[in-house]
Every structure is written in C-alpha cells, then in structure tokens.
Amino acid sequence: MLAVVLLGLATPASAAAGGSVALVTVDGVISPVTVRIVTTALERARSEHAVALIIQLDTPGGLERSMRSIVQEILSSDVPVVVYVAPTGARAASAGVFITMAAPIAAMAPATNIGAAHPVAALGGSFDKEMKTKVENDAAAFARTIAATRGRNVEWAEKAVRQSVSATEREAVRLHIVDLIADSTTDLLDKIDGRVVKTPTREVVLHTRGAAIRPIGIGFRDRVLNIITDPNVAYVLMMLGMLGLFFELSTPGAILPGVIGGISLILAFFAFQSLPISYAGLLLILFGVVLLIAEVKVTSHGVLAVGGVVAMLLGSLMLFDTPTAELRVSWWVILPTVGVTAAVFVVALAAGLRALARRPITGAAGMVGGTGVARSALDPTGDVLVQGELWRAVAEDGPIAIGETVRVTAIDGLTLKVVKAA
Known about the structure:
The chain has helices at about 1-10, 30-45, 65-75, 95-100, 130-150, 155-160, 170-175, 185-190, 220-230, 230-250, 255-270, 280-295, 305-320, 330-355, and strands at about 15, 20-25, 50-60, 80-85, 90-95, 105-110, 115, 165-170, 180, 195-200, 205, 210-215, 370-375, 380-385, 390-395, 405-410, 415-420. By secondary structure, the chain is of the alpha/beta class. It folds into three domains: about 10-220, 2-enoyl-CoA Hydratase, Chain A, domain 1; about 230-355; about 365-420, CATH 2.40.50.140. The strands form four sheets. It has a six-stranded parallel beta sheet with strand order 9-6-4-3-2-12, sandwiched between helices. Strands 13-14-15-17-16 form a five-stranded mixed β-barrel. The protein has a three-stranded mixed beta sheet with strand order 1-11-10, with no helix packed on it. Helix 3 links the parallel strand 3 (about 50-60) and strand 4 (about 80-85). The longest helix has 27 residues, at about 330-355. It is rod-shaped. The termini are far apart.
C-alpha cells in the first residue's frame, strides 16, 4: 500500500484532456497596467481550472519594475504558463526577453525576434558610469538566473543584457533560447501536447491537443490605461494639459480648459512612470510653456512666443531618451502637435496685436477723431454736442458758427479741442 502511495507521488500530475487553455494578449509597453493584465489572467486561469495560460507577447520593452513583477508571477504560478511571441512580425525586446525566458514553455511565431535587453534609465535620461555598471550587472544576473531556472541558454541571456544581441525565431530555437516555433495558437497546442511542465507545487503533463482556447478579455479600465502608456498618447496628453492650463491662466474663470488640462496632465504623468523620460526634454517643454504664458503678460512682439515654440519642439525631440523607436514620440505626432500649438498662439498673439492697434471707441480717448455739432458759436470757445453729451470746446482753426459739424482733435481735462469737419 505504501509503495502505491509513493509511486503516485512520484508520477507527474496530468492535465485533463478536453480542458480549455486560457489566452491573454500583451501588446505594447510593459507597464504597471501590464502587471494587472497578467495577474488577472493568471487568477482567471486558476479559478477556471485551465490546462495552461498562453501569454501572446509583442513588446518593445518597458518598465523594469513591472517586468520583474510579471516574471515573479510566472515563476510562482501553479498554472503552466506558455509565452508565445506572436503574431508574425512581433518581437520580445528588452523586458520581453526576461518574460519569455521565465515561462516554462517559450515559443515564437515565424518572422519574429527576441533580444536587446540592455537596461535603459526610466527617468533622467541616462546613468552615470558607476550606476550603469550596477544596473547592468543586476540585470545580467537576473537574466542568468531565469535562464538557468528554465534550462535555457545562460550565456546568450547575459549577452542580451550586456551586448544587446538579438535572435530570430530560428536562431532562438537553435541556441536554446526558446523551445519551439509555432505557426498559430492551434499549432502551438499541438506541439506542446504531452510536455511535462514543472510548477512550484507539482509537475504537470499537458494534454492540449484539440483543447478549446478561451481568450481572457482585457477590462475597459485596463484597456484605457494601456492606451495611455503609448508614448505618442502620453505626449499629446501632456501638451493638451499644458495648453489647457495656459488658457485657464490667460482667461481666468473659463474653468473647462483648466479641468481638461489638469486631467490630461495627471494621465500623462501616470504614463511617464513606464517610459524613459528625459528631464532635459521635459524641462524644455515646460520652459516653452512658460515663455508662451509670458507672451500674454509681457509685450515682446512675438519674441517670447517664437522662443516658446522652439523650446517645445526641441523638448519634444528629447523627451523620450531611448534607442527603441517604439518608446519615442513619432515625428508624425510631434510636428502636428507643435504646429497646432504654435498656430493657436500665433492666432491669439495676432488678435492681441490687432486689439492694441485698434482706436479706442469708449471713454475719453475714444472721443478723439469723433465728430459733433456746435451748439453755440466758437470764437474761440463755446459748446459742442459729441456722442450725446454737451462739452466745452475750443476752436483751433478759427471761429466756428453754430450748427456746424466739428471734429475732436484732442482733450484737455474737460475741454475738447475741435476743428471744422472736412
């Protein structure tokens, strides 16, 4: 009897045939939102007794802290996890390398690639020499331990961090970075059928051939937050927020621009947690906004406005300090955004200059150049009716008869200086 029990304990558990496989798609920058998505997917897969969870991955990288959280979730999961770099053309770069290697089973679709895991500063642009060495050594050690845990290529994992090497899907299989190439999720399930997966609590034999694939939908909240962490969206939100606050300051009491601006800035700063922000670029943009605000308060004939636009353009180019194109703002976003911002301020500036150049139409100054009628003879003083009011007036170019039309040339206290109207 004891021998039977011991034999049962030594035999890997078998995932029931005919069970379902959960599928979650991770597409874009690895961020705190991604951690929520993966954690929720694992909980759903566990509660629904899924045979395994497939994480379909396509990422240029992201926040190191978020990557470590996802790796920890995968390593500690009692549900077998399969990371599948897909669809065709996808990649697992930077943080994606660690996530892929952490999975008990790692697969790639045709025409995909993996690699370039050199750490990049999340804030402040770049590391100094000593900090760079510390961060690089830490990341390399983490990559080695993950690769060793899963029996993958430890040497390549370290090179991916230190030398930013990359590999195609065929090279990845040959170098034992991933386990297999699969044309589709169905093909993936066929190829991993019968494999033994070791979890922290047990060993599981996968029976996935013909299993139903149950996608795990991403909630509306996470979907919105995931969109916000796109560098282009985060940049537009920041610019919109600054414009909103500018208009609120220039026209106090408008309220709506201030509300929209405040919300946009908060969302932008949330996104900046996951992106490699350069302080120099951010300060240039803020300085540009300060110059534009100063243009409203100080008459510089457009010099401050032009300087503000130039500072914003340079700051936009420097905002995201990373060699990864997907983590930088696109030119197709920068140019229209800065162009629209400049156009708004040029229009506002032109309207202000026109208002300054326009002749006053109210008050005492607005009477100069106006016409009236002499109500008494002016030789040289008398009374005139101007804008419905009776004024004391002095004729400057000779006597003016009663009833003649006069034109106001100047005001001296409460006395008008007039001439005969042409």
